[in-house]
Structure to design on (243 residues):
């Protein structure tokens, strides 16, 4: 009969297990640190891309806001001139050419539209935090100002539609298009058209008074939009650009 002896395995010391645990812990911990550092770098690079895109869009916004403010001021002046001429038509020997010229600016409205693609991406993706708390607050303030301006445009649209409808009741659109409306590549010579005296569809005093009243109201609206909404919006855009 053969007798088999079991192999005897020497027991490991506790220090061996300790070092195994320590090495495993360090491996996991270093992996965590590497992953955290990588994520931090990715977020930092992403923030740089957002900041660059936002900077370019805000530059376009400030240029468009400046143009809109100038456009509002010009339109308000033209509409005021029409109201002045219609109220002093007999005293000033005002021709219908003058009325056609200034009334043509009725439809020359320019509403500001923001280049806010990056802001919407930041908000939609939850990445607004990448640019810092202070920056996030100012972006939200800018977005709120944009929302207020949009509400103002919606409110004033009704008056504009009434004014436009009255324009086509008084002025002949074919004559206006041929002689008095500025088009691409063709500028209206004011002095020439002032001497013209084309017919109106109607010169009903009541209708003309209603029309000029709306024009005066709209010119005040243009100035108020610049003062209350566009100028503050420009200041907020410039603050963001500086940051």
């Amino acid at each position: 009969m053969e007798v088999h002896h079991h192999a005897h395995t020497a027991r490991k010391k506790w220090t061996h297990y300790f070092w195994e645990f320590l090495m495993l812990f360090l491996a996991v911990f270093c992996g965590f640190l590497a992953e955290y550092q990588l994520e931090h770098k990715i977020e930092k690079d992403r923030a740089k891309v957002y900041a660059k895109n936002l900077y370019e869009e805000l530059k376009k916004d400030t240029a468009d806001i400046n143009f809109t403010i100038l456009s509002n001021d010009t339109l308000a002046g033209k509409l005021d001139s029409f109201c002045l001429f219609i109220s002093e038509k007999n005293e000033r020997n005002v021709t219908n050419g003058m009325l056609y010229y200034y009334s043509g600016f009725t439809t020359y409205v320019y509403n500001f539209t923001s280049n806010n693609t990056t802001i919407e991406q930041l908000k939609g993706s939850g990445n607004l935090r990448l640019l810092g708390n202070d920056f996030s607050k100012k972006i939200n303030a800018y977005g709120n100002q944009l929302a207020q301006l949009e509400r103002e445009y919606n409110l004033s649209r009704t008056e504009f539609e009434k004014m436009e409808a009255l324009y086509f009741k008084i002025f002949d659109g074919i004559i206006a298009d041929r002689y008095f409306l500025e088009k691409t590549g063709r500028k209206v010579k004011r002095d020439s058209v002032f001497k013209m005296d084309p017919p109106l569809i109607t010169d009903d005093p009541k209708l003309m008074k209603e029309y000029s009243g709306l024009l005066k109201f709209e010119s005040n609206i243009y100035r108020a939009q610049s003062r209350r909404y566009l100028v503050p919006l420009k200041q907020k855009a410039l603050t963001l650009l500086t940051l």
Summary: DSSP finds eight helices and no strands in the chain.
